[in-house]
Specification:
heterodimer; A: 153 residues; alpha+beta; CBS-domain; three-stranded mixed beta sheet; B: mainly alpha; 23 helices
Chain lengths: 153, 446
């Protein structure tokens, strides 16, 4: 029994690395998801962009980077700065803010192994076929829903 | 002690100690300049070779390590590492920005003043490490290009650092090697540092200051910053400011109480650690102490250790005496000419390579000139070396560690400072500051 049996978030929800962050944000708000996978022209996995990455782009660079400010309480609400920077998202590509540093699940990954990897991950994990193409994203909720169904709950 | 056995050591294969030590010295410095391998590793390897090859006995190598410099640097690093957590640097920067109503040129002056003052009392690297992020935040809010501000930050930190014994590593080394104290440095160098600082602001104004503009609504945003909120730990702030005040008082009174700077700095560090862990138990206490020590820049410390040994090697072999003699021949034994040559050569050398190895080498060279000029006059040569090495650091991005720290941060924040454009402006400005220093030395000492 592998994760093949679980209905996963389809690869149609997928962006190119050169798409802009605004597109990613709109997609995530519309679909009520926190993570969108990226795939290149051939459909191969090219990273994951998250709501966290969008939020990071809104934070001033002086606090975002290593060695930057670790406390911004003194800068006040700065709502104007934050909303103003939202418009800059169109000039940033998702590729710049995506992470590739997450474990990939192959289609034949056993359920137990997938459960362990998801436990240790903060995000849903990309499922990749033997051809390297993205099949979709497996979330904790999808895995639990499948298990609950199997248990007859 | 087995130090007496030292002079009996044989140099490998019966080679001349002078040639062997010079070869190790030149190779070590050449590899440091390439910056391909971490400088601490290179210096320690060079130090090891000096001992393995028989130029130095281990005990002589140890004797060459200036523990006063090491102790002062380490002690101050511990104090600053603990103090910075209080948020005091952000607080001062925000207060300074609001004091000039977030006016772009006023902001540049104020951030430069803050940087210069902190650099005079603490080390430059820490100062810019803490001021650069706030600077970037404020310029970001004002929609201003950060480059002119970061440029001013670099100059302010090197000029401020030249003003005191503890401001810049070259001064720490010179003070330690000569016994010149905090007050000596302050009264001889601070007046010039102030003049150079003010004069440097003029080109900054002409090139950038007069053209800078920030929209009223963006300035209002900076005026809405709440400096008090920057203080993340008021208790820590009080403790660390009290200890820093005590340590600086200790430096000023060092001669009166007959103590060396390293003792004062280390004692201050231990005192600050004590008040930090006062109400903590077992594991919390050791965590706190561990964090305090972990933030010491050990790479810099080990670099110093290795370098001191390498220089001790060439010094023992007699190479530095020969260099001193040649320098004297070059200037015809004229005192004023010697002082000016030291100033200008130090400045150009410090702009192009790390000033720490340069100063470590020149200290014994100047020491050996004392018989020629008399112990009274020799102090002027120390001021030449200090000014050249500290102000020279402004000449290029690699001239001082603080410059590289600012450049590194700017790069990560997507505002890279390029080597050549920086140097095209910085080098002439640095030469101008050295010209002013020459006039100062001439009028006051020569």
């Amino acid at each position: 029994m592998s994760i093949k049996a679980i209905p996963i978030c389809p690869p149609s929800v997928c962006l190119r690395p050169e798409a802009n962050l605004m597109e990613a944000l709109k997609l995530m708000l519309e679909k009520q998801i926190n993570h969108v996978p990226l795939c290149d022209e051939g459909g191969s996995f090219a990273g994951v962009v998250s709501t966290n990455a969008v939020l990071r782009a809104l934070i001033p660079a002086s606090a975002r980077v290593e060695g930057g400010l670790s406390d911004l309480r003194f800068a006040g609400d700065a709502e104007r700065m934050l909303t103003g920077r939202l418009h800059d998202l169109e000039r940033l590509t998702v590729g710049e803010f995506a992470t590739k540093d997450i474990p990939l699940l192959d289609e034949d990954c056993p359920l137990l192994e997938a459960a362990l990897l998801l436990t240790n991950s903060t995000a849903p994990l990309p499922v990749v076929g033997a051809d390297g193409k993205l099949r979709g994203m497996l979330s904790r909720r999808a895995l639990l829903a499948y298990l609950a169904q199997q248990a007859g709950l | 002690m087995h130090g007496a056995a030292a002079s009996a050591t044989q140099v490998l294969f019966g080679l001349s100690p002078l040639l062997v030590s010079l070869a190790i010295f030149v190779i070590t410095y050449a590899v440091i300049v390439t910056e391909k391998i971490n400088r601490a590793i290179v210096a320690l390897l060079g130090a090891g070779l000096m001992i393995f090859s028989g130029v130095l006995h281990q005990s002589e190598a140890f004797a060459g390590i200036d523990l006063n410099t090491i102790g002062l640097l380490t002690g101050m690093m511990v104090i600053v590492a603990i103090t910075q957590k209080s948020g005091v640097f952000q607080y001062v920067a925000v207060v300074a920005a609001k004091a000039v109503k977030a006016d772009p040129w006023g902001l540049m002056v104020m951030l430069s003043v803050v940087t210069a003052l902190f650099s005079a009392l603490l080390d430059n690297v820490t100062t810019v490490l803490l001021v650069a992020p706030v600077t970037l935040l404020i310029t970001d809010a004002l929609k201003l290009k950060p480059y002119p501000y970061l440029f001013a930050l670099i100059f302010a930190s090197n000029i401020g650092g030249s003003a005191t014994l503890i401001g810049d590593p070259p001064n720490i080394m010179i003070g330690s090697a000569t016994g010149l104290g905090f007050n000596d440095f302050f009264f001889n160098l601070a007046p010039l540092a102030l003049v150079v600082f003010i004069l440097t602001l003029i080109p900054f104004y002409l090139i950038w200051g007069r053209k800078l503009y920030a929209a009223p609504e963006d300035r209002a945003q900076v005026m809405a910053f709440d400096a008090d909120q920057a203080i993340t730990d008021p208790r820590l702030l009080k403790q660390s400011l009290a200890v820093i005040a005590l340590v600086i008082l200790g430096f000023m009174l060092a001669h009166v109480i007959g103590q060396e700077p390293a003792t004062i700095a280390m004692f201050g560090a231990a005192l600050l650690l004590l008040v930090r862990v006062w109400d903590q138990q077992g594991e919390d206490q050791s965590h706190q102490v561990q964090r305090g020590f972990a933030e010491v820049e050990w790479v810099t410390i080990f670099f110093f250790v290795g370098l001191f040994v390498v220089v001790a090697g060439v010094e023992k072999a007699g190479a530095l005496k020969i260099l001193a003699q040649q320098l004297l021949e070059l200037t015809g034994g004229d005192f004023a000419a010697t002082a000016l040559v030291i100033l200008w050569v130090s400045a150009v050398a410090s702009a192009l390579v790390d000033n720490i190895p340069f100063v470590a080498t020149l200290i014994p060279v100047i020491h050996s000139m004392a018989p020629a000029f008399g112990a009274e006059n020799i102090n002027t040569l120390w001021w030449s070396l200090a000014l050249g090495a500290c102000l020279g650091g402004n000449g290029s991005l690699v001239g001082a560690s603080a410059n590289l720290v600012v450049a590194g941060f700017a790069e990560r924040a997507g505002q890279p400072i390029r080597f050549l454009p920086f140097m095209l402006m910085a080098f002439p400005l640095m030469l101008a500051s050295i010209a002013v220093s020459s006039g100062y030395l001439w009028l006051r000492y020569l």
